[in-house]
Structure formats: structure tokens, C-alpha cells
Design brief:
147 residues, mainly alpha, TerB-like, 8 helices, 0% strand
Length: 147
């Protein structure tokens, strides 16, 4: 780690994320956890946030600013670093919804590789979800994305 990394490395994540930023960040990390974000994954992220009450009062300009901030964190810290900060800031009542939408994004391109499996397990742990609840959510998302 270089001098500037130690001085400036975590500044974005050190600031408290809003619930909207935390939720969107988890979905962004889900799309990026295999090294790239497919068009389908990006579309699913936009669809998920577009239908949520959590984002109803967020303008397009504000959402763009949120995504720019999250992309900066993603580039500097990777998907794992992004979810660490996002899970810490996410209200507990949104944990199941965030996990379900993250599973949906991971499954949306039809391929689940090792990086994505590890990401989903790390997300489950960071969100402190019960194994049985997480398994049920994942099973529903697999059924939803078949075909």
C-alpha cells in the first residue's frame, strides 16, 4: 500500500452511505462480482431500483450521482469492499430484498461462476441472513430465472 493509498484509500466508504446508496451498491457489486457487468445485469439493476419505493424520490440526476460514487468505490475496493460498506449501512429491514435482488442479478445472465457463488455467500454472511432464509430466496430466484 502506497502513501496516498493509506491517506486517501477509504475516504468514500468512510462516509456513511444512505439506504439508497447501500441498496444500489449491493446490486452493483452483484453485477460486477464476476469481473464485468453485462447489459442484462445492468438492466436488472435499473429495473429493481426503478420499482422500489426506496428510490421514488430520487431524481435521475441524483441516481446518476449515486452510481458514480458507487462506481468509484467499486473501482478502488472491488465488489467485496463495496458490499462491506453497503451492508454496514443497509437498514436491516432491507436485507432480504437486497439479497433477493442480488441473486436475481447474478442469475440473470444464465451463468453462475465460482466468483458469483462466493460473492452470494459473502453477501449472505455480511447481511447476517439465516441460512434457510437465504436458501429459500436463492431457490425462488433460480426458478424465476429459468427459461
Amino acid at each position: 500500500m502506497g502513501l496516498f493509498d493509506s491517506l486517501f484509500g477509504g475516504m468514500e466508504s468512510a462516509k456513511k452511505l444512505s439506504p439508497q446508496q447501500a441498496f444500489a451498491g449491493i446490486l452493483l457489486a452483484a453485477g460486477a462480482c464476476d469481473g464485468h457487468i453485462s447489459d442484462t445485469e445492468a438492466d436488472n439493476l435499473m429495473t429493481a431500483v426503478g420499482r422500489m419505493r426506496l428510490f421514488q424520490r430520487v431524481s435521475d440526476k441524483e441516481f446518476s450521482q449515486v452510481m458514480n460514487k458507487l462506481m468509484g468505490i467499486l473501482k478502488k475496493q472491488g465488489p467485496e469492499g463495496l458490499i462491506d460498506g453497503c451492508c454496514a449501512a443497509l437498514p436491516k429491514e432491507l436485507a432480504n430484498a437486497a439479497f433477493a435482488n442480488a441473486c436475481n442479478i447474478v442469475l440473470s445472465d444464465g451463468v453462475v461462476d465460482t466468483d458469483e457463488k462466493e460473492f452470494i455467500e459473502r453477501l449472505r454472511e455480511r447481511l447476517a441472513l439465516d441460512n434457510n432464509v437465504a436458501k429459500a430466496i436463492a431457490q425462488v430466484m433460480v426458478i424465476k430465472n429459468k427459461g
